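Q: How would the structure tokens look for this protein?
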Amino acid sequence: MTFNGLVSLKAVSLAVAALVLTGCGGGDGPLPFKTLNGQAPLVIGHRGAAGYLPDHTLAGYQKAIEMGADFIEPDLVATKDGELIARHEPNITGTTDVASRPEFASRKTTRKVDGVDETGWFATDFTLAEIKTLRAIQPLSERSAAYNGQYTIPTFREVLELAKTESAKRGRTIGVYPETKHPTYHEDAGLKLEDRLLSILAEYGYTKKDSPVIIQSFETANLKYLRTKTQARLVQLVDGDDYDFKTGAVTFAAPFDRPYDWTRAGKTELFGSMVTPAGLAEIAKYADGVGPWKPYIIPVKGTYGTDGKMVDVNKDGAVNYMDTSSAQPTTLIADAHKLGLSVHTWTFRNEQRRLSADLKGDPQAEYLLFYRAGIDGLFSDFSDTAIAARNTYLKELGR
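A: Here is the predicted structure in token form.
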């Protein structure tokens, strides 16, 4: 897809605001949302409240709910005995204390995940009872490790129960947004995720389009299979490897170049083909929405000098993401909405190294760019920041 040139944060904000004003004919009453369903954009607690507590713990999901998240997101992998648990990867080395458990030292192994050899401990080699003896740890070194070892690993049923209980307690519906992680890996291991997921959702009556559940995946064949089995909402995730700061384009390298089921099938198209009008039309045949990485929607670009080198804008001695600026939004949201597809993007984080220079160190400014562009929902490690920014956006619309 073609990315537009670099503009300032203020220019993007004013341009989007002008479009909204034009669409409603002036300032008579509250301005409309630009979302597909005309409702406020969703805030999804990414892995719970990952900015504050270790990923995928009941305490983390609880915290996200308390901060106002509309949905909580459990990534799902399977245990050796076929139970679905909330972990980001089948390789649980970086998110649990398994490496420090001498009783499991012999379980360390090397397995191929999406064509890449990974060494560590894998959920598929543990029973649920064994998984329950482990404790969650913070996977990112830049975040606090103070809560390491305090929380158990939840099952998918436990996450659903939490959402159900909290919905009743708070008088608002809290949705669950599961991702089936590495479906091909699990199918190769004889632990097909989708049938297990459908069985559990059926227990809760979550089989319809208006059920408080949305299922997402980076692969395609499993979503197409799910479409034949459920009317629950499905979202096709769209990944990428890195940024090209000169052009604003997303770059691709394995295993983040295409859905792994495409690789196995010999397809050569890249993830980027999914967000073209033709690619979106294909997605609309089996999914209700698309979940692209943020730069597909609002690219970031660097400033380049006459020497061809990117400028160290913040003058910290390093040239990186913090020296980029937000470019104009692409047409992706509009293209998807024309096809009836919602657009949910990821992942929003507060750390300064994850913010482009034009945001001036304010994470709320990034959310506002996407809210104003018409995003239908977004995943955040800091749901409180996402909600605060949404409240600002609501005030801008006179709501």
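Residues 8 and 358 are 7 Å apart (CA to CA).

The first strand starts at residue 42 and ends at 45.

Upvote if useful.
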